[in-house]
Design a protein that fits this description.
Strand content: 15-25%
CATH class of the largest domain: Alpha Beta
Helix content: 40-55%
Largest sheet: 8 strands, mixed, barrel
Distance between the termini: 97 Å
Number of helices: 26
Number of domains: 4
Radius of gyration: 38 Å
Length: about 725
């Protein structure tokens, strides 16, 4: 290399600012080569060189394995001078892969060298693993090596700067989120000081001071621990003249104040002017100060909104509709009753089928009903304390146990409600918890009342009391859910099929897919037990999709064996309809098994339809257009509006077994007759389930029912038995 070139390369580098310097005093270079002479020559050629005021420091590895160990221990390696061929032909490339993929070091710059011409890495590898340069040892002069090194160091420097900026921006976002979570000035100020100290690598000691509304005195808004006792006090009461002076100067001059020991930021907002004082351990860099300025913008917004925060706190603890305390407020306040001995009871009141009212009669009627229930509780039970709206359709309150009579309480609560033009007879589920069972945490007390409430729901009784054994039942249910999840993952669940018949000629026209859960002892756990648990636990979505797949697989088998015209009905629950793009998921499943959509029927209950009427109707219409048929299961048992029935893209009404089982001995046949007649007027087929006797069959046929399903003709059976049944029939 000519002297002029060397001077050009190393003497005329532009001066580097403090932000550009890395934390190390050297540029650390790792030389990786199995030839000791290469290490010596490289170090000799590059010794005493400086790049941007920093010398090179060398680390040495003689194998790929040793290189990886050093890179894991040394975080500041800037350059990797790497031999391609060492203990194996691809040892160098393996090091590169491990550096990028295993160690996740994307900053270190890699210069590969080899003495064997045929081992150059492919261009794709160079791009994929971000290799800076590749040189043949035979043509690598000192000048070329230095040039490659210069380029690599500059690249490493830029990457480090970008990573630092990215980290700082993440830090600012995190800090901004942290301060916005506070709703009073004291905790807000403490959070501001803590987050600003984090950005500047400061000690964390500091305060926020400013003028309160219509106050001419600088006051302490809050800060680190040592200043919290001065909250609201004049700043002159601090036993620290330096802090007082710095804050006062900052406010008076309307500018930041900075010394080697502390920094005071001016904070201006629409309504206030304040100062943030912070003790320093080291002088912050220009970059840190810039990031602090960005953070202070968010602090200013927070200061403007501190009044709004207090208003929001009021909103957060009060129900907007009824103006009663809300769930959060109730939980906080009931904790104060834990150690009191007043013989109180905590009563939790849930409005039964409230969602049906909302969906069937409109949200406005639902809101009026909620106001009516709140008013009823406050008027009829004047001794009630802490009346609160705990949930969408749940109220809670306390009252003396001596004044709580179950029968009169329920009677008063259930007197019909005048809601607009409607007179509504409502039913309630009620859970009661005695004060002796209250817990230190309000949320735990609420949990106990909910246990009693849920027990009342499941037992179909209006009211139940909390007792410790209810928790045992809850634990049993949770254990059952865990076992169900485990058995489902282990593919222990089964799908059985119950044939469906034309009532005219008793020929099989399809079947219904029914979920079965073996208990392990030769018996099966009732779907009436585990299906509701699966729905509450969110398992029903995965299980329901699996049942649909099993049904499609069976339909494909039926096509192959000559029974392709038979349809398979699959039950769908409310949670499944809440899955995004559920209709597309069903279509994709059917297409994946190459079966005709018209041979797959979805059975939905009235509760599914009424949960989110418009959304469900749109989903069902999309599926009908695809070719899937839809049936309403258990029709007549719900609380739906018949107006929605005309909007639904239905093919079939299914008469619930409750309207079939006592035919012909009571008036159940009259309801079945109504459903059949309704189906005929709407052009829908009707199918009766639970048919067990010839008498029932005869009555249903006379009424005009189209199809039947029940033990009289066939019980549910596994797939193999179903195929044999079809062959023999």
């Amino acid at each position: 290399m000519a002297p002029e070139q060397e001077d050009y390369l190393f003497a005329e580098h532009e001066e580097v600012t403090q932000e550009e310097e890395t934390t190390s005093a050297f540029w650390d270079v790792l030389v990786v080569d199995d030839d000791p002479e290469i290490h010596s020559v490289t170090k000799l050629a590059l010794s005493n060189l400086e790049f941007w005021g920093k010398k090179l420091r060398f680390f040495h590895a003689y194998s790929g394995k040793e290189a990886i160990e050093i890179l894991k221990e040394q975080n500041n390696i800037s350059i990797l001078l790497l031999d391609v061929v060492m203990e194996t032909d691809d040892a160098g490339l393996n090091v590169v892969r491990r550096v990028r993929e295993e160690i996740k070091n994307m900053a270190v710059r890699i210069i590969m060298r080899t003495g064997q011409p045929g081992y150059a890495p492919e261009e794709k590898i160079i791009r994929e693993f971000d290799i800076n340069d590749y040189k043949m040892k035979t043509e690598l002069t000192r000048s070329k090596l230095v040039t490659s090194l210069l380029t690599a160091i500059r690249s490493y420097q830029q990457i480090c700067e970008l990573e630092a900026q990215s980290h700082a921006l993440e830090q600012i976002l995190s800090a901004s989120r942290a301060i916005l979570g506070h709703t009073d000035m004291g905790s807000f100020a403490a959070a501001v000081v803590a987050q600003l100290a984090n950005i500047l690598d400061a000690s964390g000691e500091g305060l926020v001071s400013g003028y309160l509304d219509d106050d001419m005195h600088l006051r302490v808004f809050g800060g680190s621990e040592q200043y919290r006792e001065f909250f609201g006090h004049g700043i002159e009461q601090l036993d620290n003249g330096r802090v007082i002076m710095q804050v006062q100067n900052c406010i008076d001059t309307e500018s930041h104040q900075s010394t080697a020991h502390d920094i005071t930021f001016l904070l201006e907002s629409k309504n206030k002017k304040a100062a943030i004082y912070l003790e320093l351990e080291v002088e912050p860099s220009e970059a840190q100060l810039k990031f602090a300025e960005i953070f202070l913008t968010n602090v200013g917004v927070g200061l403007d909104n501190i009044k709004l925060f207090n208003e929001l706190r009021e909103v957060a603890y009060k129900d907007n509709l009824t103006k009663l305390p809300n769930r959060a407020n109730f939980i906080e306040k009931i904790e104060s009753y834990f150690n009191q001995q007043q013989s109180l009871v905590f009563i939790l009141v849930d409005i039964a089928q409230f969602s049906d009212i909302n969906n069937g009669l409109g949200q406005e009627v639902g809101n009026l009903l909620l106001l009516g229930v709140a008013e009823r509780i406050s008027i009829e039970f004047p001794e009630a304390q802490l009346i609160s709206r705990i949930g969408a359709d749940v109220f809670g309150f306390l009252m003396p146990e001596s004044q709580f009579d179950e029968e009169s309480f329920i009677d008063n609560l259930c007197v019909p409600y005048h809601v607009g033009e409607h007179l509504l007879t409502m039913h309630f589920h009620i859970g009661v918890c005695r004060q002796e069972d209250f817990q230190p945490q309000g949320i735990e007390t609420l949990k106990l009342a909910y246990i009693a409430l849920n027990q009342a729901k499941q037992s179909s009784i209006p009211l139940d009391w909390y007792t410790p054994d209810l928790e045992e039942k809850m634990a049993w249910k949770l254990g059952l859910i865990r076992q169900l999840r485990q058995d489902f993952e282990m593919k222990k669940l089964e799908v059985w099929y119950q044939p469906q018949f034309s009532i005219a000629d008793r020929k099989v026209i399809g079947c219904e897919a029914l979920l079965r859960w073996p208990s392990g002892n030769g018996n099966y756990i009732s779907p009436a037990i585990f299906v509701p648990l699966a729905e509450n636990a969110g398992l029903i979505v995965e299980i329901g999709q699996w049942v649909l797949e099993q049904a499609c697989q069976l339909q494909a088998t039926l096509q192959q064996q000559g029974f392709g015209e038979l349809s398979i009905a699959v039950n769908v629950s409310v949670p499944q309809f809440k899955v995004p793009n559920y209709a597309q998921q069903v279509k994709d499943t059917i297409l994946s098994f190459n079966v005709e959509p018209k041979h797959i029927e979805l059975e939905v209950t009235e509760s599914v339809v009424m949960d989110e009427v418009n959304s469900v109707i749109n989903t069902l219409q999309e599926l009908q257009e695809f070719g899937v048929e839809v049936a309403i299961d258990d029709f007549g048992t719900g609380f739906s509006s018949l107006s929605y029935l005309q909007k639904l893209p239905l093919a079939r009404l299914k008469i619930d077994r409750a309207f079939v089982k006592d035919i012909p001995h009571d008036d159940s046949g009259a309801i079945a007759d109504l459903v059949i007649s309704l189906g005929q007027h709407l052009g829908l087929k009707t199918i009766a389930e639970g048919v067990e006797t010839e008498e029932q069959m005869t009555v249903l046929q006379k009424l005009g029912c189209d199809e039947v399903q029940g033990f009289l003709l066939a019980k549910p059976m596994p797939e193999r038995d179903l195929l044999e049944f079809l062959e023999s029939n």
